[in-house]
Amino acid sequence: MARSNLRLVHSVDILAEEASGETGAAAAPANFRRPALLGEILVERGALSPQDLARAVALQAREEARFGDILLANGMVTQQELYEALAFQYDTMVADLGAEPPDVRLIDRLGADTCIRLGVVPWKRVGGATVVICSRPDEFDRLRQQMPAEFGEVRLAVAPEEDIQHALVAARHRSLARKAETRVEASHSCREWNRGRIGRVAASILLTLLAIFTVSPLFGLALLTAWAVLTLALNSALKLAAAAMYLYRRKHQKVAFFSKRHGPAIDKLPTVSILVPLFREREIAGRLVRRLEALDYPRELLDICLVVEEDDTLTRATLAAADLPRWMRQITVPRGAVQTKPRALNFALDFCRGSIIGVYDAEDAPAPDQIHRVVRRFHERGRDVACLQGILDFYNSRTNWMSRCFTVEYATWFRVVLPGLEQLGFVIPLGGTTLFFRREALEELGGWDAHNVTEDADLGVRLARKGYRTELLDTVTEEEANCRPWPWIKQRSRWLKGYAMTYGVHMRNPRRLLREIGAWRFLGVQITFFCSLSQVALAPFLWSFWALPLGLPHPLAGLMPQAMMVALTATFLLAELITIAVGMVAVSAPKHRFLRIWVPSLHFYFPLATLAAAKGFWEILTRPFYWDKTAHGLFDLPAAASGAADS
User: Fold this and answer.
1) Where in the chain is the domain with CATH 3.90.550.10?
2) What topology is assigned to 232-542 in CATH?
3) Which of the ends of the chain has fewer CB neighbours closer than 10 A, N or C?
4) 432 in Cβ contact with 359 (< 8 Å)
C-alpha cells in the first residue's frame, strides 16, 4: 500500500510541476540544489496525505493559485509544516524575523514598497553575501535579478509572507504611510487643496452676491432662481433619459437590463483580493466574517484583507477575538498626516495578492456568486474595461421611513441612473463599495486619492481621463441603510463635500479635462457634479414658490409675466413627476414593490440634503480632509436572510 501511495505522490507531483513551474530547472543560486518535489517532501514527513495532494494538484490545474496557498487555504498542512518543507526543498533555513529583525539599511536600498510588492525582505549581510528572505522560493531565481549590485551574492532564506510584511511595516512604516498619501499625481489630487485660496474665492462669490442683492434684491433673487431652475431641468432631463433607456432595453432584450455576453471559457480562475476598510467597528466583525463566508469563490483564490488603522484599538481588539479563517487577514495601517478610507486602501494595495482588486464596506453582504460574475465579466471584456460597479441595496429597508426613502434613492441611482450614464457614454461616479478593478489599471492611476473624502467618485473621473471604461454589473451587495437623521446628514455632507472637491480638482484645468475626456463626457461632468451640487445648494429658492399655491406672496410673482409663471409651474410639476416616475420604475421589481407608495414622500426626504450641503460646504473651508465616520452594525440582516440576491 505504501508503494502504491508513493507512485500516486510521484505522478501527481509531476503534474504539479508541469502546471505551476514551481520546481523548474532554471539556473539556481549558489546555495540551491535541484529541489525534490514539495508534495513528496510533505507526504514523506507525514504532513500531507496522498489524497489531499491529488486534490491540490487537481485544483491547481484550473486555478491561478500557488501550490502552497492551496494547501494552506484548505487546511491540508500547517504553515510551519509548509515552510519547513520549503526550507528542506531549497536547502536553506526558515528565518525568524521576530527574533532577528531585518537590516533597515538593506531595506532602504531596495525600497520598502518594492519589497512588499516582490514579497521579499533583505535580511542581513553574511560575509560578502546578502541573505534575502522570500515567501515564494520558486520565484527567487527571477527575483534575485532585481537585487542591487552592491548586495553581492544573494542567498535565500524563507519565511511566511505575513512575517515578511509585518517586518517591513515595523521597519519602515513612516515611508510606507507617506507613499499611501501621495500615490496619485498632484495634479489629480486634492492634497494640495489651498484653503486660503478657496476661502478667498468663496468670499469673492459671497461679496459679489451681496453687492447684487444690495443694488437690486429682486435681480439677485431672480438670478439665483434661474440658476436653480436650470440645474433642476438638466438633472430631470438626465433622469428621464436614463429611465427611457432602462425601459427600452428591458422591453427589447430577453436577458436582464445589464449585458450578459459570454466569451471563451476561463482556463484558470484568478486570485481576487478584497479590501475591507474598518474603523471603530465593535459590532461588525463577526457579522462580516459570516457574510463573506457566503461567497462561493474558491478559498485559495480569495484574499480578504481587513484594513485597520493602527490607533483603532477597538477594531483591532474585536478582530483579535474573532476566529478569522485562513483566507482572511488583517492589514494594519500606520498613523499618518490624514486618516481616511482611501489612504488605508492605498496602503493595503501593495499587500494584495490578486490580479483583481475589490472593495467592500464593513456592513456589506454580497451575493454568493458575485466574485464569479466579476471574474467572468473581466474575462469577456477588453483591457479598456478597468472597473466593474455592482448594485447596492439595503437589508434594513423596512426599518423606518428614512430607510425606505434611502432604498428608493439607491434603487434609482444604481438601477436606473448609473446604467443610463453608462449608455450615454458619460463618466460614472463610482459608489464606494462593490467595486472591482483590474490591478494593473488601478496601479497605473496611483490608486485612490488619499485626501478625497469621496475617493470613489474621483476615481471614476480619473479612470475616464486615462481612457478606461467602467461597466455596471448585475450583482447585488446588500448593506445597512443609514436611517437616522443626524448620521444621515453627516454622511451626505461628506459625500457632497467630496463631490465639490472632486469637481474642483478636475476643473483646475478645464481645457486639459476637455481634451482628455471629450466634449460629451465633459458635459456629463458638468451635469453630474456641478448641477447636482447647485441643485442641493439652491433648493430653498425653489421651495419659496410653494408660497404661491398656499396663497402667500412671493417677491417675484409681480415681476414675471403670466406665461413665465405658467412655464415655471409646469417645470416644477414636471420635475416632480419625473422623480416619482423614475422612482416607481426603479422599485418595480417584486422585492421592492412595497416601496412604491413611499416614492412620493421623497419630496420631504431630499430637503435634508440641503442641510447636509451647508455642513459640507462649510467643512471645505474649515476641515476639507475630515472623514465623518458613519456608524455601522446598528441593524443586522433579517434572520431569514441568507445573502443578497438580485431583484
Assistant:
1) 232-542
2) Spore Coat Polysaccharide Biosynthesis Protein SpsA; Chain A (3.90.550)
3) N
4) yes
